[in-house]
DNA sequence: AAAATAACTAAACATTCGTTTAGTTATGGT
DNA sequence: ACCATAACTAAACGAATGTTTAGTTATTTT
């Protein structure tokens, strides 16, 4: 054995994740990552292979960060009201850390949409699919809704979430809240 | 006087605009632009100064392309039904040319959100503000709506349009249509 | 027809990108 | 205590970026 790493991989990945979130993949350079992560380029490369590997790891980090939020959402038992709360939560969390822009998933999907990067693409669509599945689950708690309606409304909510994510920084908090209210008015 | 230009500036700008639309600003290189526009780098630089200048010109081109659509929308006189039609139109136009991804405005706003590029930023917010103004105008045709409701619903529609733009390629046409239906259900 | 000038081509430019390499420092086991 | 080895620093790498320059071609004016 030999010398120990002077940094914690999980910690530096989280820092990278936030930087990627702020700037997107292409606009985040290795120099910026070096500074933000507080470690040398060599260390980044020996820990994560290359920039792409670091990004994948950042996505995984995001995933685990978001898992808790999803878990809470999943375990709640007030149907549509939970979805609504989820909307509010996701907004307030992106207002809380107001450096972050919108939703990492939406941003990343947009940036990689023209590439052939299937790993990234599948990771992103899996995020969206999971969300849709949760919405369906919640909507099903209302027995008066037939299957078609549930699916329709779930798709609607996924798209509404997209709108929220895309506009979370350009619109005011009040506008966002009004939007959520109206979104749930006829569900 | 001397030699004439062998290309039409308007034509090549439109080609540049479509390329920027597909790839975003950063991911579109001068080499790609050279090929797509069909003219030499030198010609691009002598006509538009630099890459940024060409992009500004591309935005102006987009603006004039969209103006017609906006004008039609403005002159229609069926209130909310016109807004709904506008939603369908903007979706079908982005499905028609399925190379284009979502909405140029939303994409650009996302890409430039972290920069200090005020020219671009203002150009983008002006697009959004114009849209909101039109929505307000349409919603006002219903005398039963008070001013607050109109404003609230206009904001709602702007955000819904965002969601549509962000998800126009990842979701199926049917899902998009259902989304539009539900969006207008309680307006 | 010749001179002037603007538009063309293509190569070179400096800079930045992601990545690698060479050399140093620190820590582990024997 | 010493050697092996892993983690560090910093400089260099080639490729790609946006931009400029030098040199050629074509068109207008006199």
Overview of the molecule:
- The structure is a homodimer of 187-residue chains.
- Chain A is an all-alpha fold and 187 residues long.
- Chain A has two domains: 59 residues, Homeodomain-like (Arc Repressor Mutant, subunit A, Orthogonal Bundle); 112 residues, no CATH class.
- The first copy, chain A, has nine helices and no strands.
- In chain A, helix 1 packs across helix 2, helix 3 packs across helix 4 and helix 6 packs across helix 7.
- The longest helix of chain A is centred in the middle third of the chain and has 25 residues.
- The relative contact order of chain A is 0.11.
- The mean pLDDT of chain A is 88.
- Chains A and B meet through helix 6, helix 8 and helix 9 of A and helix 6, helix 8 and helix 9 of B.
- The structure holds a DNA duplex (30 and 30 nucleotides).
- Chains A, B: Keywords: DNA-binding, Transcription, Transcription regulation.
- Chains A, B: It comes from Algibacter lectus.
The chain pair with the largest interface is: A-B, 41 and 41 residues
Shape of chain A: elongated
* Tally of structural domains of chain A: 2
Secondary-structure class of chain A: mainly alpha
Radius of gyration of chain A equals 19 Å
Taken as a percent bin, the fraction of beta residues of chain A is under 5%
Number of helices of chain A: 9
How far apart lie the N and C ends of chain A? 61 Å
State the share of residues found in helices of chain A, binned by percent: over 70%
Total beta-strand segments of chain A: 0
H and E string of chain A? HHHHHHHHH
The residue ranges of chain A in which pLDDT falls below 50 over 5 or more consecutive positions are: none
Q: From the structure provided, what is the oligomeric state, counting identical versus distinct chains?
A: homodimer
